[in-house]
């Protein structure tokens, strides 16, 4: 038996919101859960758990469902794409090279 994943309330809310957004994307396209489950090779109960934001479902299953919703799995590439804080921290650690002295003509 694996370790139980304990999440903070803020992470739970993020997963729930993500599940709701996945469900809304499916509903906007008028795709039944059965079709998504079939396309993704998952059980309907797994798709429902994803739409509720369950932390016990694997990231791979989330990706399969997103892919089944007309290739939305590519949206996963947007995670941490614009790491503004990380870039700022990196830039602060860089040393600035001194300018070379001007050459005499």
Describe what this molecule looks like in 3D.
17% of the residues are buried. The protein has 105 residues and is mainly α. It has helices at residues 9-28, 33-40, 44-51, 59-68, 84-93. The mean pLDDT is 90.
How would the blueprint of this fold be written?
Elements: H1 9-28, H2 33-40, H3 44-51, H4 59-68, H5 84-93
Helix pairs in contact: 2-3, 2-4
Quick summary:
About 55% of the residues lie in helices and about 0% in strands. By secondary structure, the chain is mostly helical.
- The total count of strands amounts to 0
Number of helices: 5
Sum up the overall morphology in one term. elongated
Q: How is the main sheet built?
A: none
From the N-terminal CA to the C-terminal CA, the straight-line distance is 77 Å
Taking Cα atoms only, what radius of gyration do you get, to the nearest Å?
22 Å
Helix content: 40-55%
Structural class label: mainly alpha
Low-confidence stretches: none
The SSE string, one letter per element, is: HHHHH
**Approximately what portion of the residues adopt beta-strand conformation?**
under 5%
Q: Averaged pLDDT, please?
A: 90
């Amino acid at each position: 038996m694996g370790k139980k994943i304990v999440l903070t309330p803020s992470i739970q809310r993020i997963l729930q919101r993500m599940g709701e957004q996945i469900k809304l994307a499916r509903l906007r396209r008028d795709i039944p859960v059965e079709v998504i489950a079939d396309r993704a090779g998952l059980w309907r109960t797994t798709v429902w758990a994803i739409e509720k934001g369950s932390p016990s479902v694997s990231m791979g299953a989330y990706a399969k469902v997103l892919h089944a919703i007309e290739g939305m799995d590519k949206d996963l590439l947007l995670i941490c794409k614009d790491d503004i804080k990380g870039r700022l921290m990196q830039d602060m650690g860089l040393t600035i090279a001194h300018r070379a002295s001007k050459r005499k003509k």
